[in-house]
Amino acid sequence: MSTASEQRRMSREEYLSFERVSETKHEFLAGEVFAMSGASRRHGLISLNIARRLAEQLDGKPCETFVNDMRVLVNPTGLYTYPDVVVARDDPEFESKELDTLLTPTVIVEVLSDSTEDYDRGGKWKHYRQIDSLKHYLLVSQHAMEIEMYTRNADNSWRLTDHRPTEEVWIEAIACALKWDEVYDRVVFEESV
What values do phi and psi take at 189, rounded to 5? Predict the structure, then answer.
């Protein structure tokens, strides 16, 4: 899960009340609260680049794009989490009138960090694939130009596509393309030794 610098047991209602006034973000699962760590410059640039490019392409369409701060509830498992980028299509559903917890994401993007990569690929992905509305899950490297995308098939199985920098990443459910130079705009990679 997230970096657990602070853990407390609380009810779902206590978590939501706490989270709505907290200056830092926390994930929640089965009564446990996990403080989320900050992001690197590269992580922030990539997240913002993706959100901006998707929002531009979705302008005028019945979709909403969120970056970093939209909490998502995986209803079947009870996980509350904050994906790096989320797109919701048509009329998004929210948990409450506060409109701060999305129930129906169509696309979720996670920019991989050293501290969260295993969780984003494993445990969190097990949660995410329980969301009926989810059509695409993208894992974006911040250390190299690499994007992996899971796409839900008609039979609810998932297909993994490992994209390389020679092609656009086409996100069918929202009819958007991500271009490599735009995703990684202003991102400087460390040289290998």
Answer: -90, 145
